[in-house]
Every structure is written in C-alpha cells, then in structure tokens.
Design a protein that fits this description.
two-stranded antiparallel sheet; 27 helices
Length: 696
Amino acid sequence: MKFKRLQTFAFALFAVNLFVVLPLINLQISLDPGLALRFLLCSLLTGMFSLIWIIRPPQYIFLSSKFLVFLGLLLFTLLWMTVSGFQSINAGDALWEFIRVTILFLFCISFCLLFQDVENGVEYLGRFSMAAIVIFSAYGFYQLGTDWNASHSSGKSYQMNLFIGSSLGNKNFFAEVMVMLIPLQAINFYRQRGTWKFVFAFGLILCLLWVIILQSFSSWLALLVAGIIAPLYTGIFKFRKKQSLESAYRRKPFLFAFLVLTGLVIVSFVFVRSDGVQTITNKSKLITQYIDHPELIDSTSGINDNSVFERILSWRNSVRLINDHPFLGAGLNNWKLLHAQYGLGGTPFINTGMIHFEHPHNDYLLIWSEQGPVGLLLYIAFFFFLLHTARSSILLAKDKETRNLMFWIVFGLLSFAVLSCFAYPRSRIYVMLLLMLYTALVLVYTPFTGKKFLVDNRRRLSLGLIGLFISCFGVYAAWARLKGEIHTQELLRAQYAKNYARMIKEASKAESFMYPMDLTGTPMSWYKGMACFYSGKIQEAISYYESAEKINPYHLRVLNDLATSYEQDGQGQKAIEKYGAGLRIAPNFIEGLLNLSATYYNTGQLDSAFAVISRIRKYKISVQDEQNYKLFLNAILLSKARIHLDSLNKNGAMDNKKIIVPEDLDLEALFLSSVKYGKSFEEEIDGQLKTELQKL
C-alpha cells in the first residue's frame, strides 16, 4: 500500500510538472525563456522515477508486444544517432542532442510504467492540462494586451507580433503547443459529464482561438490535414451511432445547440478579425510567385523578405547538403554549421550577415541531412508504428472510450507530423513532451496481448541505475546549457555597452564542452575575439577567431572578422582568402565586399579592388556602409584615373598636353555613367577630358 501511494505521488508529480510547473517557466535572463530549464526539470523527474524504480519491491509488470517493438525502435534510433555523432564538428553539441532525445524517450517510458499503476490517469491528465492552457493563455493575453496598447498609442494598425509567445518563445511555438493540447481536451470532453464537460469545451475553444489569433500557417495546416486524414485513416465514423448525437440533443437540446453555435460563432469571428483569410491569401500568393518565377530565389530583392522565401532557401541548402552526404548524413547537429556553405542572401537584411538559420523549418530534412536516409526512415517509422498501433486499437477495441482516445491521439500524431514539415517541433521541449505523452497513451491503452515480466532485484537495480545515470547526465548537460545562456545574455548586454573586458569574462563563463556556441551557432570564442579586436589586441583576436572558425567553419561574421584581423596584422593574402570564403557564402554581403575591396587596394591590386567594389552599386546599403562605399570608391577611382592619365601623358594621346585629374572632376558620376552605357571607366574619362580640351 505504501508503494502504491508512492507510485500515485510520482504520477501526480509528473502531471503537475508537465502541466503547471513547465508552463509557468518564463526565464527572461536566458536566451530562450524556458528551453534549458524545462529540460533540467524533466531530467530531475526522470531521475526521481529511476530512484523509485530502484526502491520498488519485486513485482510483475505487463509489457505488450507492441511496447517491446517500440523499445527496439528507440534503441536503434539512439544507436544510429551515436553513429552520426562521430561525424559532428563539435562533440559537446552532438552529445547535447543525443542526451536531449534520450531523456525524452526515458520520460515516455516512465509515463508508460506510471500509467499501469494509476486508475483514471487520462482524466487526471486532462484536468491538469486545463491548468497549462490557462497559464499559457494568461501569459499570452498579457503580452497581447501590452502589444495592442503600444500599437494603439502610436496610432498604427495592429499586426501580430512574433514574440506573442506566452512562455514558449514566439507565436509559432505557442500555436504548436495549443494544437498539441487539443487532443487531451477533446478526449476528456467526450468522457466527462456535468461541469467538467463545460470546462473541457472551454479548453477546446481556447486552444482553437489561440491557433487562429497567432496566425501560424503551419498550425492551421496541421489542424486541417489532421482533421481530414484522422477520420479517414481510423475509420472512426464506422463506430459512431447517430443515436448518440441525437440522444445528447434530446437530453439537453438548448444547451447542446448553444454550445455548438457559440463555439462556431466565436471561432469564425476571431478567424475573420485576426486577418486569417488575408494571411492564407498572402501565403498562397507568395508560394505561387516562387513557382512562377523561380529565379527570384537567387536574386536580391525586398520581395524576398518573407518566411516563405526563408523556408525555400533553407530547404534548397538542405537538399544540397543531403546530396553531398547521401549515406551517413553530415553529422549530428551539423546542419546549422554546414548549410551556409551553399549560399545565403536574397534580401538586404540577410545580406547584413546578422541572420543565422538554426533549422531548415522541416524536421524531415534536418534529420535526413544530419543522419542520412537511415535516420529519416527511423523517424518516419516512429510515426507509422504509433499510427498503425492506434488504428489497430480502434478496430479491436470493444468500448467507445478507447476508440475515442485512440482517434484523438491519431489526430495529435498527424498534427505533429504536419508541423514537422514546416516548423521544428522536434527541437522544442514542451511539444516533444506532449508527443511522448501521447506515445505513452498509445502503448498503455492498446488492447494487445503481451507478457508479464517479473522485475526482480537484479533487473530492477540495473534498469534503475541506467535511468539514474542518464538523468544525472541530463541534469549536468541542461545546467551547462542554462548557465551558458544566462552568461550569453549578460555578454550581449556588455557588447551593447561596449564593455569589452566584461565581454571576455562573460564569454569565458558561458563557454563549456556542452555549450561551445550560442543558440544561433555563434561561437563563444568569436565574442572573445571581437572584444580583443576592439581592445587593440589583434594577435589575441586572431587566435580566438581561428578557434571560432573551427567550431563554425561557415559563420559569415567569423570569416569576415578573422579576415579583418589578418588585414590589420599585415597578412593581406590571408585576409583576401577569408573575405573570399565569406563572399562565397553571401555574394552580396556589403561589409565583406567593402573590406575585400579595401584589402585589394592596400595590397596594390587596384583592378581587383575596382572589380569587387563595382558589385555593390546595385544594392541598397546602410548609412555607414554608404559612407565607406563613397570613401573607398573615390580612392579607387582616383588611383585608376591617375594611372590612366599617366599612360596617356606618356603616349601623348591628348595632343601632347600633360593632363592631371581635375579637382572638380566627379569620378563617381563618370563611374555610374560607364555602368549605365556599358563603357569602361577609362573610356568615360577620355570622353570627359576631350570635352574639356575642346572647350579650351
């Protein structure tokens, strides 16, 4: 009896953590408000369950054949991730990804075992999930109200802010969580009676409202696809009796009609008011535009300043990465480090070099590019296994509650699978925990035969210690990441304040084996190099930048700043090589073009300097870059003009008159004229000088 109470306590602790504690976390002192801290708490929970497993008395547990197949699939997935990890550029970063996935699997297994000892577990989870919806909504409404008031005060029409993300980071992550909470609300709406039925109806409406308000196209698509495919795939309508709906109507006709109509009216009203129709129309136009004009993808234009272009760009680079690593993949957590080698750009904003893609916005492409076709097949097999198991459960189940449970789990699995096509739910801790919860429900409530296994002392101790070791390592990894994020936040404040000594101090505190770079892929050693460079310590800056290049070899800022340090140190040829490497990534990177042009000029390669700076004229640039552009361009043009006139004077080409460059000669105007009419700069000078001579 004492152990039974301990198991019930563990289940309650898991539920409270998942639906109360984790939603409350909104840590503003870290880069991500809850990613590392949520993972830390999950690791502590799995460790606690492992301890309970160690102290539990020997007893039999039921493991279905499907559960054993699932365990085999998980083990093979982890084994293949280990193989991919050996190809990773940064071992610590790859190990973080491995332990993250392992803890999630352990969380799922823990839930499976806990469900066996708790009656009415689904009902309790549903009630706790309402707390999560309320907490997420409270954060969301506060942020929405604050943003709305700010927009109203400025007299501007309101547009949805990306950072209306509750405690989840941004609006897309928020919408994904709301989508994944819908199945729990729907399951318990059908199961409950009385007051709780109204509560779950409210939860359903609230989830749908947030999905609509947040204008997340991928979430809308997930609901649409899951809503169509789930009934067709499961054949759930075969088990629905018209009498059940009719009886509900006969028992409480006005209440039933009121609930249905109110829900439809509210959802429809919010959808229209939130510009939902306009959002869908705009996305459709953008997709059609890139289909009709594929050349836009390789152009630089303000037209490309949209999320559709960013996805196309990252998908294209993912396909190229897959082609270069067709069998084993590029290595665990290497996508964010290697994709840039295939080119970035397309908008003036991306050309600044300040944008870093962390993910291709497609989990399937990410896994394929990093882990190869085997990794992709394992990921897809995970969903197919669960979908097949849930469908079989529906067909074999003798009670409608099990059929209803499995139907909505299929709905959730399909929603996650669709979200994975256009976002990255696999990389977010909370959405993945919900997926693991639904996985556990499938495995526990499937009506298949299996065997009872006696968990004797030897097995109990072995399994418990393995789980405890994994959990402890998860705590260590999460703490290292959390500490790194907190110090990186302080580092960014120091960078803004130009406090370079503090930058080095905070970067040193943030950096560790598990945290070699921040969430954007920028190495900690780059921050140290930047601080040293602006402190006049060029040799130290070079050392740090070279270290940063090893961590992220295609980071545009790393390559550019390393080249600048080489140039300052008198290593012109090395600087040219690194500037060139950066411009192969982003050919229209304005700062890189200016720096390379200046380096060519300083090393006496005037024609190369002129050729490089000529590439800038077509693109919109910042005020600072515009000033540098005019300064560098005029210096280069003046040198070219002098060399050309010296040649003319030697040859007596101007009626044996010695010509010098007039002080009032507008060299930039001549340059632009040469571009406009397809002439060389020297031809424009000749024409201008002949005109001046004729006047004399």
